[in-house]
Design goal:
This protein has four helices and seven strands. The longest helix has 17 residues. The chain is of the alpha+beta class and 176 residues long. The chain has a single domain, classed as Alpha-D-Glucose-1,6-Bisphosphate, Chain A, domain 4 (2-Layer Sandwich).
Length: 176
Amino acid sequence: MGVTGTPDPQSTYPARLRGRSIELARGASYIAGPWNVLLEARVIGLGEETFDIARNRILTWQMHRDAGIRVQTDGDAQVGRTARLSIGVGPFLIPARCEVVAIVGAEQEAGFCCGTLAGHPERGEQAFLVSLLPSGMVRGSVASFSRPAPLAALGSSVLQQAQRVMARKYIAAMLP
């Protein structure tokens, strides 16, 4: 896993937690601190071809786009790359800036995690991971630890529910 040593100065969560959402995506259930932890995972298919398709869709941001997120970035996910994500309709968009802080690129596991930057409605990190299991099953997972940014704190229960819905959409969008 490639975690950068120098966080973006606009990062909104502790540098010591950079890359930890990958552990959650792999099944860990705890992050110390006042974080809301989320894990959504399910089998999305079988075989290396399915794994390769999902890996490509995650790393090229296509999974995000097909889940209904607008993505503005300079290319595929790589450590240090920033992205401006937004969701909404017409002029009613909620912006969410993030930085890719870790890439997973193993033979049977791939994905990345991104940390929130100033202006994001939440503070924390989210991981998108696909794994080819020894059985041949392909597992997609989305995990995060977060808490609302100060201005969004009043709607924290709504944000948590929206985050769960989006995690399910991301997993569904790992395959065309």
